[in-house]
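As a warm-up, study this chain.
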Amino acid sequence: MSSLSPFAVDALAFVLAYLLGSIPFGLLLTRGAGAGDIRAIGSGNIGATNVLRTGRKDLAAATLLLDAFKGVLAVLLGGWLSPGAAIVAALGAFLGHIAPVWLRFQGGKGVATFLGALFALHWPTGLIVCAVWLAAAALWRFSSLAALLASASAPFVLWGFGHADQAPVIAIMAALLWWKHRENIARLSSGTESRIGRKT
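Now compare it with the structure written out below.
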């Protein structure tokens, strides 16, 4: 890619990562398994949490892994194009997942893709952020709250490891993740959010 300008490399990394992130694995898997259109049940999102509402834990697990893999692969691809393009690709994949062009920009909430990209950028940060999620989920039994706290911690953890150049982009991604969880935040505030393991 030496013939391309740094801006062109970043743009290419972003577009490729966005297209990769836009692949709606939850929708494709549920349709392929005969479980119907995932957008017609539950929250209408295409992520693993809503796939779980079909009763197919295997499809939900596969969706979680594939959505995370989108983030991993995008960052690796961006880093292959140029080391500085890895963080651009992380943002592209995340935006692709939460606003896929194929689904009129109505995608998932981005937690798995966010974590996948974070692991590929700096795996120690990914481990710590996952630990925050697990601790919060164990303490309060809210998956959404755990995701919110974990994502909020990510830019600070990354900055603490000396990656101050990447932390602002991760902060933007975390802010978008919070925006995608705005209905969950409202239910948490009103005390009506469903707890992990409880069908409500």
